[in-house]
Amino acid sequence: MGAVDLFSEVGGMPLSEAAARFAAAGVPVFPCVPGEKRPLVARGFHDATADPGQVAAWWSRWPSANIGIPTGAASGVEVVDVDVHATGTGFPAFREAHREGYAAGWAALVRTPSGGLHAYYPAHPDRAQSSWQAARAHVDFRGDGGYIIAPPSKVLRPGGARAPYRLIVTSGDIPVPVDAARLREFLDPRTLIPMGRARTARLERRGADAKVLAGWVAGRGEGERNRGLFWAACRLAESGTPPAATLEALGPAAEHAGLGSREIMATIRSAYRTDRTAPRAAEPVADERRVVRGSPGRVIS
After folding, report:
1. How many CB atoms lie within 10 A of CB 161?
2. 30: which strand partners?
3. How far lies 194's CA from each of 191, 203, 210, 223, in Å?
4. Sign of dihedral through CA atoms 291, 292, 293, 294?
5. Nearest to 228, CA basis, from 201, 257, 269
6. What CA–CA distance (Å, rounded) separates 215 from 272?
7. Do the beta carbons of residue 217 and residue 253 sit within 8 Å?
8. Are 8 and 41 in contact (CB under 8 A)?
9. Which of 22, 106, 195, 284 sits 20 to 30 Å CA-CA off 237?
10. Within a 10 A sphere around the Cβ of 7, how many other Cβ atoms?
C-alpha cells in the first residue's frame, strides 16, 4: 500500500515534490492537466512510471500537473469511487455496501474535490479486477484498466476555485482486498427475464462485452480517446446493442478518459450511423443527462 502510506506526508507538498516522493517510494505516476483529470502524456496511465528521472522531467515541464496513479496491479491499490454530482450521490449505496460487508477493509479514505470519496484497498496479488461503473448507484471501481488522481492534486470547481484531494483517515486495521465482482452485483443487480436460452446467452455475452469495452475505453489516453470510443461503440452496434444501452455502458468510461458529454454523444451517434446493421433507437441517444455523469469540474475521479 505504498501510495496510501504517503498521503499524510505529501499533503502539504508542491505537486512536483509530491510526484517525486511517490516515485522514490516505487509508486508509478503520470502527469495530468493542471486543475483537471485528463492525462498530459500520450498513453495516459500506460505511461506511468516510478523512474525518478522521467518523473522529474515531466514535472519540470508541467510543475502544476496533477498526479495520476494507475490502479490495479501496476500500483497495488484499487479504489471504490463514490460520486457526488447533479444527478445523485453514491454515499447511500456505499454505506449500505459497507454495512453488508462488500466494501469493508479499506486502507484509507480520501475526500475528492466534488465532495465524493475515494476508498482505497490493497489489490489482490492473485486476482486481477477490471475497472467498472455502476452508474445507477453512482459508484465506480478503479482496478486494472483505470487510474485515480491522488492527493495533493487539485481540480478546478465551478466558481474558479481549485479544490484538493484530501486524506480523511487511514485505517487502524489491516486492510483487505475488495471483491469487485460481488460489490458490483450488490450495487447493480441484474434480473434476467425468462426467455429462450439462445437469446439469454446472446444478451449475457453482450453485457460481458460491454464491460470489457468500457474498461478499455476508460484507459485511452489523449489522442486516442475519441477513436477508441468510436471503435467500441461500433462493436456494440454490430452486436445489436441499442444506442441508449451503449451510452450507458461506454459514456462514463469515455468521460473517465477525458471526453466531454457532447463529444461522447456525437461519437456514439456517428458509430451507429456508420454501422448499417445497428438497431434503430426507439428512444434517441439524445438525453445525456440520463446516463453520462455531470463533470466534477467538468470523470474517473
Report:
1. 10
2. 68
3. 10, 12, 21, 43
4. negative
5. 257
6. 20
7. yes
8. no
9. 195
10. 22
Grid cell listed for 270: 456517428
**202: three-class secondary structure by DSSP:** helix
Note whether 206 and 246 are within 8 A (CB): no
Q: Where are the beta strands (DSSP E) in 75-165?
A: 77-82, 84-85, 88-89, 108-111, 117-122, 132-134, 139-142, 147-149, 154-156, 162-164
Q: What is the DSSP string of 141-181?
A: EE-BT-EEE-TT-EEE-TTSPEEEPEEEEE-SSPP----HH
- Using alpha carbons, list the distances in angstroms from residue 276 to 99, 228, 271, 284: 48, 20, 10, 16
What is the pLDDT, as a whole number, of residue 221? 67
**Residue 236 in 3-state DSSP?**
helix
pLDDT, tens only, 162-221: 999 999 999 888 999 999 999 999 998 864 444 444 444 444 455 557 877 888 888 776
Distance CA 146, CA 120 (A): 14
Q: Collapse the DSSP code of 227 into the 3-class scheme (helix H, G, I; strand E, B; otherwise coil) and give the result.
A: helix
**DSSP assignment, residue 221?**
-
For the chain, how big is the Rg over CA atoms in Å?
19
**CA 30 to CA 49: how far, in whole Å?**
7
DSSP sequence for 289-301: GGTSPPPS-----
End-to-end CA distance of the chain: 19
